[in-house]
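pinned: reference chain
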Amino acid sequence: MKADTVTKDYVKDPAIFADIFNYYVYGGRQVLLPEQLIERDSAKVALPYGTEGAVVPVQKFRDVQKLYAAKTDGRMEYVLYGAENQSEIHYAMAVRNYLYDALEYVMQVEEAAKSHRREMKGKKGHGRTLSDKGKKKPSTGEFLSGFWKEDRLIPSVTVTIYFGPEEWDAPLNLFEMMDVPEESVLACMDNYHVRLIAPAHIEDDEIMKFQSSLREVLFFIKYSKDRENLSRILELNEKRFREVERRAADVIEVVTHTGLKYEEGRAAVDMCQAIQDMKKESETRGRLMQAQESARKLDEMGIDTEKIAQIVGYAADTVNGWLGNE
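pinned: its structure tokens
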């Protein structure tokens, strides 16, 4: 299984997706509900906006994007949330996410323009538009832009999730990707910040704010190379780690390459037991390798195979197999 495929499938789950943005935007408060999220087409077409002539469109694909729609203070509120999954550090993430958000706004302007053109032609539109006003005669500026004065964009928020134990050392904003010593130049520019969730950068008490199995995923990845702290986390959160949903366990395994084994088809995985089984198997494999090495050294010393078998604690036939005497 490829890490990108497994993590993308995991994050697409409405409960996991809502948990990501409840943490990042609302500090762990359960504001977004899974049933309020609507799946969106992740494909974006990049065009030289505002130019004429033949162009070659470039298609970009977000990992996951969902539309949040809920009533707030008696009126509908809409926000677009996008999640970008990374199994490797991406050193141009600021530009990548900046492009996705910009393309989203370009598409919204184009949708508004299409809607207004339909209205002016007297054709009934379909679906929600950025402006639900009645027919009107647009000003010259409105007509040229396709975007009317009262139209409003839907906010787009993109969060990057790094599924790796290492510290994220890539730039976290656009300015960090530049080498511009002149402050007056930067003052004329808009910076773009990467909104990042990376296990190594999150304190344990912050990870506890996640309510879904993403909590266990982040904890395990964070301490996957630190056995002592991993054991501590497993013990402190034993109840939850004994019932980790299968997809979360798949993410943990494909990212950390720990060697966990669990039964196919099970809805939940006992991670504590899986780790114990892994440790036992590792110890058994270690003892076997040590016995094989000892048998080879004793054979080089001219000791009889039967005697070697007694010393290493394995059957003579097995020892003969190791030494190639069969």
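why pinned: The first strand starts at residue 37 and ends at 39. Confidence is low (pLDDT under 50) at residues 48-56, 124-133.
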